[in-house]
Design a protein that fits this description.
Layout lengths: L6 E7 L4 E8 L4 E5 L6 H9 L2 E7 L4 H4 L2 H8 L3 E4 L28 E3 L4 E4 L2 E7 L8 E5 L4 E5 L2 E2 L2 E2 L9 H11 L7 E4 L5 E2 H7 L8
Parallel strand pairs: 3-4, 4-5, 5-6, 10-13
Antiparallel strand pairs: 1-2, 2-3, 7-8, 8-9, 9-10, 11-12, 13-14
The structure holds zinc ion (ZN).
Zinc ion (ZN) binds next to loops.
Length: 214
């Protein structure tokens, strides 16, 4: 029997409490870092895993999700990937940290621009790109269909949704994207950009904004 169980590790960065998700194949020794924040623990965990970092994957360009890009790229020589429509804001996003009263590190530019349907191989697994604009114009999620996992950044949270009132946010597009998200199977686990993970079924039943997207 094929061992499906992937390596999944959350590293939280402060003060924004942003989730970086490390996702990898234990057998093939490959992993990706999704939304690296500013914690040194991310690099420590990658080294502990002992495999190859094949990509630095960003769901969107907000500073708290990309401020670890520079460190990881320099240390592991991995390419930075982000949605095509958020890429123009990537290297400037650290400036918005000032709005939150914190200092942040600029990201290098992207090495690969992703659009709907693009695929990233991580050992035996495949992350498929799904576009979910709204929180930002180019927010993307990474979907592992075989395992039923979705890394969705700030699209949705456990009984919450991403802010649409920040610069370039759009409530109409957020609603359309959440509607699109609800077409995924019930049992899909959603790994969120902040807070605890959730499932499609749980949010369909319990999300306080459900009337806007069901
Ligand atoms: Zn965000």
């Amino acid at each position: 029997m094929v061992e499906k169980k992937p390596f999944i590790k959350r590293v939280v960065s402060y003060p924004i409490e942003e989730n970086c998700w490390l996702f990898g194949d234990r057998e093939k020794r490959e992993l990706v870092a999704i939304d690296p924040g500013n914690s040194n623990k991310i690099a420590e965990q990658i080294e502990k895993f002992g495999g190859e970092l094949v990509a630095i994957c960003c769901t969107h360009s907000h500073f708290d999700h990309v401020e670890g890009n520079k460190l990881l790229k320099e240390r592991f020589s991995a390419p930075i990937m982000i949605g095509k429509y958020d890429a123009p804001y990537l290297t400037e996003s650290y400036k918005s940290a000032e709005l939150f009263g914190v200092k942040s590190v600029a990201s290098p530019p992207a090495d690969r621009l992703l659009v709907e349907g693009d695929k990233i191989k991580v050992g035996r697994y495949t992350l498929e790109v799904i576009e979910y604009p709204g929180h930002t114009p180019g927010l993307i999620a990474f979907y592992e269909r075989w395992l039923g996992l979705l890394f969705a950044g700030d699209l949705i949270f456990y009984e919450g949704i991403g802010r649409f009132d920040l610069p370039r946010g759009d409530f109409q597009k957020t609603k359309e994207s959440l509607h699109k998200l609800m077409r995924l199977p019930d049992e899909v686990t959603i790994f969120t950009g902040h807070g605890e993970k959730t499932t499609v079924a749980h949010e369909r039943m319990h999300n306080p904004f459900r009337e806007h997207f069901l």
